[in-house]
């Protein structure tokens, strides 16, 4: 996934969800610790560009491997690009922060989210 200042949060979210339809990412004003949640009041407007929400303006390719853990992905966004993200997993009609399962792989989380949606239909 290419990270550059001109992209909107919404563009990044859509690219991520194309690869992982059972998951979504949200962007926040501040970082969180492992296995900690982020408060909705700190969530960024998806229409904002990355330039508007970060101090560190590095650009590049963020490699997203389905076998990496949620914690690794969130840390990579933070360390490489100065972006504070939280991954959510679909649970029927709800989206849950993955705080208690940050050590699960993206693939495992996505499978659970997609399955939850299929059961709900």
What's the short version?
The chain is built from 4 helices and 5 strands. The chain has helices spanning 9-19, 50-53, 70-81, 106-120; strands at 2-3, 23-28, 60-61, 84-91, 94-97.
Number of continuous helical runs: 4
Unreliable residue runs? none
What is the helix content? 25-40%
Strand pairing plus helix content: what structural class?
alpha+beta
Mean pLDDT: 91
What would the keywords be for this entry?
3-stranded antiparallel beta sheet; 121 residues; 5 strands
Q: Would you give an account of this structure?
A:
The chain is of the alpha+beta class and 121 residues long. It has one domain. Helices cover 35% and strands 18% of the residues. The protein is built from four helices and five strands, in the order E-H-E-H-E-H-E-E-H. The strands form two sheets. Strands 2-4-5 form a three-stranded antiparallel β-sheet. A hairpin with a 2-residue loop joins strand 4 (84-91) and strand 5 (94-97). The longest helix is centred in the last third of the chain and has 15 residues, at 106-120. The relative contact order is 0.23. The model has no long low-confidence stretch (mean pLDDT 91).
Write the layout of secondary structure elements.
Elements: E1 2-3, H1 9-19, E2 23-28, H2 50-53, E3 60-61, H3 70-81, E4 84-91, E5 94-97, H4 106-120
Antiparallel strand pairs: 1-3, 2-4, 4-5
């Amino acid at each position: 996934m290419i990270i550059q200042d001109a992209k909107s949060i919404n563009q990044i979210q859509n690219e991520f969800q194309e690869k992982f339809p059972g998951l979504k990412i949200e962007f926040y004003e501040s970082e969180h610790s492992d296995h900690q949640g982020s408060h909705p009041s700190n969530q960024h407007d998806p229409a904002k560009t990355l330039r508007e929400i970060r101090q560190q303006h590095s650009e590049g390719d963020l490699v997203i491997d389905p076998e990496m853990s949620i914690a690794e992905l969130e840390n990579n966004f933070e360390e490489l690009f100065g972006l504070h993200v939280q991954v959510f997993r679909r649970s029927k009609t709800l989206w849950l922060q993955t705080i208690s399962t940050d050590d699960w792989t993206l693939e495992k989380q996505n499978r659970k989210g997609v399955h939850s949606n299929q059961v709900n239909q």
